[in-house]
Design a protein that fits this description.
This protein is α+β, with helices and mostly antiparallel strands. Helix content is 30%, strand content 42%. The chain has an 8-stranded antiparallel barrel. Helix 5 packs parallel to helix 7 and helix 6 runs antiparallel to helix 7.
Length: 361
């Protein structure tokens, strides 16, 4: 047996194929046992053993179906082919048992009839499993490559925390520091694609978003002078990952890298200095999306989403501006953001809800 299991041909075959083919070995014993005088009890044991092996093979298929939301066409064909082999072998055993019964000697009719009934039940179970596989959802592509593109728009409510520092240009000694906050409103657009990379209910969605901000956070002095930043636009590239619940609600975490284009301003009247710069940042957040019924009559699935994100921006520097040439200025920003918006699915993936299959006892 160990030599058989280690043959190179078997090692190259699918594990499920090997399990199912091996499961049918006891079936070959039935005809011989049925034709052996006085072997009725042994016959029943052999039929029971055959049933256990067939059930184990069918349960292996059931375990795959229970863990997968869909099957590729090649997977469906492979499972159907194996079940066809099981059925044909069982029918051959059934025919052999019938012939043995016609010429039986010392074999009780009750045991012989029980063997035929059991074999017939196994055939029915195999046929039922074949129909289940035929009706199982088909993956549009290989598992993990299902893609559903989407586009959308949203409003942005920001709470911007700006810390400004003033230092002597000659020595680097800090002379002043300021802390200011503002909570402006903006809007943005998003594009991305949804995947099911692990062939389960976990959805991953790489995305890119662009936000028009035109928001200023300034520290104003007596007399009208000020220093601060004006946010022009921001962009984020990242991914959203989380479970798609049976209720249709998708809960996810957000991680990404961001860019902020801003104008640094030092306005010490009558001289005004400004400098445009772009700084990188890191974004983390959480969110949820759902598809309300009243938005599903537009030909494409529409989802609403609500997210919270926090972004840490790299420091922006404005050294020796004309309005204050003896000093260097550093601006440090952190933003808390609430986003409320919608997405429209351009190419929805195949059904994602697992179909539970009956397991034989």
């Amino acid at each position: 047996m160990f030599a058989f299991l280690k043959t190179p041909g078997l090692l190259r075959k699918d594990f499920l194929r090997a399990l199912i083919l091996t499961a049918l070995i006891p079936g070959a014993l039935i005809a011989g046992v049925l034709m052996t005088p006085g072997a009725a009890q042994a016959q029943v044991v052999d039929v029971d053993d055959l049933g256990n092996e067939v059930a184990a093979a069918l349960n292996s298929i059931a375990a795959v179906l229970n863990a997968r939301p869909c099957l590729t066409p090649s997977e469906k064909n492979a499972m159907s082919d194996e079940l066809t082999r099981i059925r044909e072998r069982l029918r051959a055993d059934q025919l052999a048992a019938n012939k043995a019964g016609e010429a039986r000697s010392g074999v009780s009719y009750k045991s012989w009839n029980r063997a035929l009934i059991r074999i017939d039940n196994y055939i029915n179970n195999v046929n039922a499993k074949r129909r289940e596989i035929e009706n199982y959802p088909v993956c549009r592509t290989d598992p993990g490559s299902q893609v559903g593109w989407f586009v959308g728009g949203y409003f942005v409510k920001s709470w911007q925390d700006l810390k400004s520092a003033e230092k002597l240009a000659a020595t680097g000694q800090q002379t002043n520091s300021f802390s200011d906050n503002k909570d402006p409103l903006g809007f943005g657009v998003i594009v991305g694609a949804k995947f099911t990379p692990w062939s389960n209910d976990i959805v991953a969605a790489p995305f890119a978003s662009f936000e028009y901000l035109n928001m200023s956070v300034n520290h104003t002095f007596v007399g009208g002078s000020f220093l601060g930043t004006r946010s022009n636009f921001a962009a984020t590239a990242g991914v959203k990952v989380g479970p798609q619940l049976s209720s249709g609600l998708w809960l996810y975490g957000v991680a990404g890298v961001s860019l902020l284009n801003q104008t640094l301003r030092v306005n010490f009247l009558p001289v005004v200095s400004s400098r445009d710069t772009t700084v990188p940042g890191a974004t983390l957040g959480v969110g949820g999306a759902w598809q309300p019924e009243f938005l599903q009559g537009f030909g494409r699935p529409v989802s609403l989403f609500l997210e919270y994100q926090h972004t840490w921006w790299q420091d922006a520097k404005f050294n020796a501006p004309a309005a204050s040439p003896a000093f260097n200025y550093k601006f440090r920003r952190q933003d808390d953001v609430i986003k409320l918006g919608f997405t429209i699915a351009l190419d929805a993936p195949a059904p994602n809800a697992p179909v539970r299959t009956r397991v034989l006892k």
